Amino acid sequence: MPHVQCPKCKTRLDLDDRWAGRQGRCPNCRAVLSIPGPASPTASPGEGAGSPPPLPAATQGAAPPPLPEPRSFASARGARLWLFVVAGGLACVATVGLTVLGGRMRADRGAPSVDASRAAAAASASGEPDAVATDGAEGSLRSTRATAPSDSAAPYLSASTPSSTPATRPEPVREGDEGLVGISRQYDDLDCQRIQGRHGVRIPGAATIIEVNGLRLPIANPSGLAAAPAPILLLPRGTHAVRFRPSELPLEIAIDDDFVAQYGTMRTFFSVGGSIRGDELTSRGARAMDVHGAPFLLNFMGAADATQGRWAVAERKFRRALVVNPTFGPAHLNLAECLFRRNEMAEAARECALAEAFNVHDVFGLAAAITRFRRKLGEPIGRPTTADVRVESYVSTEPISEDDHRLTALLEGVSKYAIRDEERGKILNNLAVHFADTDRPQLALHHFRGALAVVKVAGPERFELAAQIFSNMSRVCRRAGFEEAAEYERMRHLVSP
Amino acid sequence: MRRIQDDQRTRFRPPAARRAAICLVAATALLAGAVPGAELLEGEFGNVDLGRPLIEPARFPTIGELRRLVARPEITTVLMFKLFAGGDNHHLPVWSEDGLRLAFQQSDGRASSSKLFVFSSLDRREPTPLTDQPGAYDYMLRWAVNQPLALAFARIDPARQTTRIYLADDGSAPRAITANEGRHVFPALYRRTDGIWRLVYEADGRLMHEAWDDEGPVDRPAALARGTSARWSRDGYRLLFALERYRQGKLVAYDVALRNLRTEVNRLLPAGEEGVVRSPTWSPDERYAAYYVRSPGDDRPWRIRLCPTGEEGTARTVGGDVVVNRDFESEGPAWEPSGRRVWFFSNEHRQQAYHPLVAADVASGELLVVDYPRRCTTPNDLAINPATLVPEMAFVAHDGLPRDLFLLMLNHY
Lengths: 497, 413
Hints:
The structure holds 2 protein chains of 2 kinds. By secondary structure, chain A is of the alpha+beta class. Chain A has helices spanning 45-48, 57-60, 73-87, 90-108, 114-125, 131-138, 189-198, 259-269, 278-287, 296-307, 311-324, 329-341, 345-358, 367-377, 391-395, 402-415, 421-437, 441-455, 462-480, 484-494, and strands at residues 3-5, 12-14, 23-25, 32-34, 200-202, 211-212, 215-216, 232-234, 238-243, 251-255. In chain A, the strands form 4 sheets. Chain A has a 4-stranded antiparallel beta sheet, with no helix packed on it. In chain A, α16 (402-415) packs antiparallel against α17 (421-437), α17 runs parallel beside α19 and α18 runs antiparallel to α19 (462-480). The radius of gyration of chain A is 24 Å and the shape is globular. By secondary structure, chain B is mainly β. Chain B folds into 2 domains: 1-34; 72-410, Neuraminidase (6 Propeller). Chain B is 9% helix and 45% strand. In chain B, β16 (250-260) and β17 form a beta hairpin. The chains are: A alpha+beta, B mainly beta. At the A-B interface, α16, α17 and α19 of A face α3 and β2 of B.
């Protein structure tokens, strides 16, 4: 059993043998520690994520809340050097230190954790329970069965965090630059957009078909997908021939790593499947001013709501994920589960068909879950049905009149000409106010987000404007009885210079 | 004495209730002065400033006012403003197919030059000059089909007396596509989903086709027919164009023709009338072609005719004595996005220098006359945003000596 004393706060720790030769964080002051002893033959996936894992709770006792990371790498390196003197292994520690430093820098840039991906992929390929493959897909809704509602019929609410990928908790990073301070940028919306872009191909507005490696996806209106901000078809690792028109040549699309592994790492990061880090998701939502360019975080947020039995809120999150990227299979299947619970069987079957259609070569690892869901619906297995994607149907289920369409087109049209983003944001806010005033909260929230999308790139006034818009959103939710009211209040306080 | 005065003052002081009422009226008048007639909803921002000189109304309308406008049954102006005035004359605004970009031409008669400008984003205060080459004469711009960031245009090289087609893609510097010989005009550009570009243009009376991708040409340049003013269909396999008609070796008229690039067959559309044809344009659903036509001879008025692109039906005239750009021939009649009507300015409806908008219903042929603020005179080159549900129209008109670019938004189609 290795013993180590934290060089920073002098806390003495008694650790299991499995920690020997590895690095960890002091549960008291979060300083990086190198634990003496022979190195473990297999590195933990968490190490690959660039940040040492917290030491086990069993040895921590009642650990105080984690403090922010050291502000500079120099101080962390200094701590490691001190440990090196104690351990007497300069070369070894320096090597480890450089590795960790490189990993941290990768993580700070939002680069994927290659080691974690490999480990997860290896776990999946080695015949372990298809932790990432099935989880990643259903993942969003996968949380412990114990926390699911007792009447849960959802098979996706059963998985726990895969043992092969222990949770790498988000580490607060003090960046000190623009935007929110003290929040990790790993897996924020920009990072998620990069991940999405790396793992897929954008469907052009001119698409009349979607064909991958000679297999035509059963989607009735591919060109309708272009109405979404990020119609990116996710593909598994490998080189694919993707064709968007029957008489044109296929494009060669190379995907370097498995999306399912990457998604699994993200799930682990946010503890999806366990006690979901809702605060981290909310803070990232606030950083993005509630405007997402990738569906992953919204899907996780929906999962968090679902595990707390807030199914109506979860459904709205899944719908929002699909407004962002209507090809995201997990959100389709999660939405299908919500609809199933509301006894909307036809719509649930349609969403299940879409989840299957976009699960190209099982990119999401959804195949087994789709089969289970089809059985639950009493639908035939293995006979994919052609489905129609209507992006606008995910925006709202509220009635909209011809005059509403005209007013929307007018204000969205004229807002394009506003020279200042602040003024454009005001116009779009006013459009949302129209829907709020006529008791259509879903449409109002959608258009408030449209205003935020503009305001977030505006000048110094953006924080004040965003706070006002969040205040409007919160008020709309309160009036409508939506539980998101508190969420928007929190975001209002989080967006500040 | 002093006390008496005080008493008098007291006697004439309004009672408290009346004072409050006066204050209220004064405050209301003050507010009304700031935003006359504005009744803001809870959470609505007032005093929105587009940052552009509004022609009508004087301030940005409130939600309440806009609600009333969109509910009106008749088509009416919601907002009109000047988009650009650069001191020179402007011509032929053209929308990109996604409706998010607008390009137009600026001519300088004194310098015999012409430049192209692009609003790559409509929130820009000023458009970006596509080129700034001294002495260049750029015109006949046309956005690509299936690639909203690319456009093609023709450039006259005054030194070599040639005209070439150039391509500008995604803000990059324009590059010449066709050879530097002869006169290459009327470009029509198409981008396939597999990255292959296809260009059709007129080369000295012949319709030419070229195709290339990032690695080079994928097809040898080929002559398709004798004709001009080609337009791609959405699928990229049909071309609508004006086909030259010869009699005893002389060009006597044009026909409207459709070429199928798969079968390589030209089919004449039932134009039903012999004359000079300009700028045939697909309807948004591609069921009709609209084009300008006039009888042979000088100073004959231009009309707009429609003919079905299918096998059946006949052509008919829907607008008489329409205003066309006599100097630059690159754009055709303006379709509304639903394909229900064709819009134009007509001398038949002019009131001195003011021309109202005229819309011809495709199904019934019925004409609709729509007024807009009369501050602008002698309008021309109407272009309708192809991607919006309500009318968003760009045109050029005089508001002073030069011809400026205006933007008009109506309440509905």
